[in-house]
Amino acid sequence: MIRVASYNMRKAIGTDRRRNPERTIEVLNELDADVVALQEADRRFGARASAIPFHLLEEHSDYKPVPFEARDGSIGWHGNALLVRKSVEIVDKTLIHLPSLEPRGAVLADIRLKGESLRVVGMHLDLSGLWRRRQAHAILEHIQARDAPLPTVLMGDLNEWSRGSGCLRDFAQHCRFAECGRSFHSRRPVAQLDRIMVTDGLGILESGVHISPAARRASDHLPVWAVLAPGHAHSLSEKVTHAIERIGPMRRLLRQAQRGRDALVNSRLPRRQR
């Protein structure tokens, strides 16, 4: 099993408006994921250095950043970063350029962990619905153009408030969504902005929103997580849903058969026994 998570860490600025990277690391350690996609991982101004100092990550967690080396002092690109356990092998990595009015991008890494090969994409999409859809298409086209197809998990802050339209519909043509739940705002979650999606070859066994006192304070988003099973095309929840969908028609057929049997029995009984 592989545990993945996505977290908009808001540059390590909490709901108390204080920058506290130690608190962010506390939340990351609580997640205990094999792979984490981070959004807003860099400071916004100046050199845009990592909001989590490298030495804190090294000394106080089991994570290492995928080294995209896009900017000195940064652990990602346009705020997107991927963290993996220190034991994970990083096979390949690349930046995905996205169409946008303001600087936006996505990050991709091919990794090996627990004897499995996995492709991971982290993203933070635009506030504009039109640009979100363009960015979703760019990400999907980039994945499809890769030389070697791999089971892929896509994670990030999609900024999509609708339940099933916009970029969600575009991703749904190629991916399945983990039912994580509402993650924004961390103090009172009302929107499911943060998403985890998988392609064929990955099953979703469990998923949810990570809620803890530290997580409620560390950012305006709560982290979302999922437990994946390589080699399984469908999740347990999907199988249950499909089974429930089949129950309705089966019940109708049984009722029809029962009525037909009763009618046949009644037709053969003497009139006074009916």
TrEMBL record:
Q: What range(s) does the Endonuclease/exonuclease/phosphatase domain occupy? A: 5-221
Keyword terms, alphabetized = Endonuclease, Hydrolase, Nuclease
Could you tell me one molecular function GO term of this UniProt entry? endonuclease activity
Show the InterPro entries listed in the entry. Endo/exonu/phosph_ase_sf, Endo/exonuclease/phosphatase, GPI-anchor_lipid_remodeler
User: SUPFAM superfamilies, alphabetically?
Assistant: DNase I-like (SSF56219)
- Coiled-coil-forming residues are none
Q: Name one GO biological process term.
A: GPI anchor biosynthetic process
The secretion signal range is none
- The name on file for this protein is Endonuclease
Q: Superkingdom, according to UniProt?
A: Bacteria
Query: Which regions span the lipid bilayer?
Result: none
**GO cellular component entries:** membrane
Pfam families recorded? Exo_endo_phos (PF03372)
